[in-house]
Specification:
- By secondary structure, this protein is mainly β.
- Helix content is 2%, strand content 52%.
- Strands 4, 5, 6, 8, 9, 10 and 11 form a 7-stranded antiparallel β-sheet that branches. Strands 1, 3, 7, 12 and 13 form a 5-stranded mixed β-sheet that branches. Strands 14-15-16-19-18 form a 5-stranded mixed beta barrel.
- The longest helix has 4 residues.
- The chain is globular and about 65 Å long.
Length: 481
């Protein structure tokens, strides 16, 4: 019998995972070489793209021997939301491929949805000035083949390999808002299959609903796609914010995880299907719904507008990518998501900085927030949702590094998206506060940002007096994009 090799395929830089057969389980290495595939995006410039979701309908490796058929590495179409992959990674597939030398990889794309904010001086297509608009762009062409370096790739027996892809939104979105996909290979990872403890991918922002709780593992299912992934936990797994679920364990542990909860997980994947949770964060109770969005305007003390990028589970009258008006209930609670604060799960690390997220006065354009939806109504094409919970969530913001103050670990982020520069009042600079144990992604020859670097920063964005402040542990470099 001809052996195959586990292979992983991913889009570098959140939250969409898929494996052959629809669940993330370990790969049978007796049938081949494991391969994984991941993907991330390059932040767009010009128009403010707040949501871009597309279907990847096919991915195949072509052997160098052209008489051999292409080897499919994607068993089912995968929906990917590229707008939130500036610092995160989406896992596309885990497959087995025959040992061989491969000359290229081909990706095929399907339906796409695009939501932009137009802060230019003229209408863009059917989108008027200062409006958030949903569009359905076409891919032209609908496929792309990558055959340059590092191809040809030789895949040998008793190994595991993965390919990380970069989808460049800035180059892909054309002036007529059609999509000409620009994809490059960011990394190829190749290791012996005996090194099972070695991490192939670090995935953040994996979210869904708990559909099974077992012994030191649970299954997380994305209700939109039906895709599921089995996630293991160990003594190093950190559990955060389960106090809101009524869990009294101190410290919080796996006993806090219950059926039907909505969770967000940061995990490690070893290229053979084993998923290990690094951090598990409570999002919402089983009986509740959660919507996440990016704020596009703050209209008053009781209302703001946002573009929805995630809903768990699906909410009647709301769709991902849609602009909505949010009415804040008089008794609404304001909270800060703990994922970027630290493993102590408290606000103590921010108290000396004087940051606040306690009322609508702390809201600003560009913040990512989670709301608990109440009543949903639609009048004259405008969808309005009420909420009694507004929770600050990590934002992903791109720009250039301006001045750096190494004495307090801060730098100025400039050349911001039109989402910020076109806002009222305009935001032209964000102060970035770096925390301890920083994660510098894609920095080839340096361990800290330098003036002029093009970067994406993920963290909590606070409406501080004068210049907004973003608190981060994750910075991704885009100098080579």
């Amino acid at each position: 019998m001809r052996r195959t090799i586990p292979y992983a395929l991913a889009l570098l830089s959140s939250s969409v995972l898929v494996a052959c057969g629809g669940s993330m389980n370990s790969v049978n290495t007796t049938n081949g070489v494991p391969m994984s595939l991941t993907i991330h995006d390059t932040p767009p410039s010009g128009v403010a793209v707040l949501f871009f979701e597309a279907s990847i309908t096919g991915a195949s490796l072509q052997p160098s021997d052209s008489t051999k058929p292409a080897v499919s590495v994607l068993s089912a179409p995968v929906e990917v939301e590229f707008g939130h992959l500036q610092t995160d990674t989406a896992f596309l597939s885990l497959a087995n491929v025959p040992p061989d030398t491969y000359a290229s990889i081909k990706l095929t794309f399907g339906n796409a949805q695009l939501t932009i904010v137009n802060h230019s001086t003229a209408a863009i297509g059917s989108c008027p000035i200062n409006a958030a608009c949903q569009l359905t762009p076409n891919f032209n062409p609908s496929s792309v083949t990558l055959s340059g370096a590092p191809f040809p790739i030789t895949v040998d027996m008793a190994s595991v390999f993965g390919i990380d892809l970069d989808f460049n939104l800035n180059s892909s979105i054309q002036t007529d808002l059609s999509i000409n996909p620009t994809v490059t290979i960011a990394h190829v990872i190749h290791r012996d299959d005996a090194d099972e403890e070695k991490e192939m991918e670090d995935l953040d922002g994996v979210d869904g609903q708990v559909t099974m709780v077992g012994t030191n593992q649970f299954t997380l299912t994305n209700p939109r796609s039906g895709q599921s992934f089995t996630i293991n936990v160990d003594s190093n797994s950190v559990f955060e914010d389960f106090g809101r679920a009524g869990c009294t364990a101190n410290p919080q542990d796996f006993s806090c995880v219950k059926m039907d909860q909505i969770l967000e997980v940061r995990l490690s994947e070893n290229g053979m299907g084993t998923m290990l949770a690094k951090r598990v964060e409570f999002v919402e109770d089983a009986s509740k719904e959660a919507i996440k969005g990016t704020i596009t305007s703050v209209d008053s003390s009781t209302q703001f507008h946002m573009v929805v990028f995630r809903e768990e589970p699906s909410v009647n009258g709301i769709s991902e990518g849609s602009p909505v008006a949010v009415t804040i209930a008089p008794n609404a609670t304001f909270q800060v998501g703990l994922a970027e604060i630290g493993e102590d799960g408290g606000l103590s690390g921010f108290s000396f900085l004087g940051f606040s997220f306690a009322s609508s006065a702390d809201l600003m354009v560009g913040q990512d927030v989670q709301i608990r939806p109440g009543t949903v109504t639609s009048t004259e094409g405008v969808t309005t949702v009420t909420t009694d919970l507004v929770r600050l969530w990590p934002s992903q913001v791109s720009g250039k590094v301006g001045s750096i103050d190494s004495s307090n670990g801060t730098f100025a982020l400039t050349n911001l998206s039109p989402l910020f520069t076109g806002a009222t009042p305009a935001v032209t600079t964000i102060k970035v506060q770096m925390l301890s144990f920083m994660d510098f992604e894609e920095f080839p020859n340096q361990t800290s940002p330098a003036v002029g670097n093009s970067v994406s920063v993920k963290g909590l964005l606070f409406n501080t007096s004068g210049t907004p402040t973003l608190v981060t542990r994750t910075i991704s470099d885009h100098q080579s994009d």
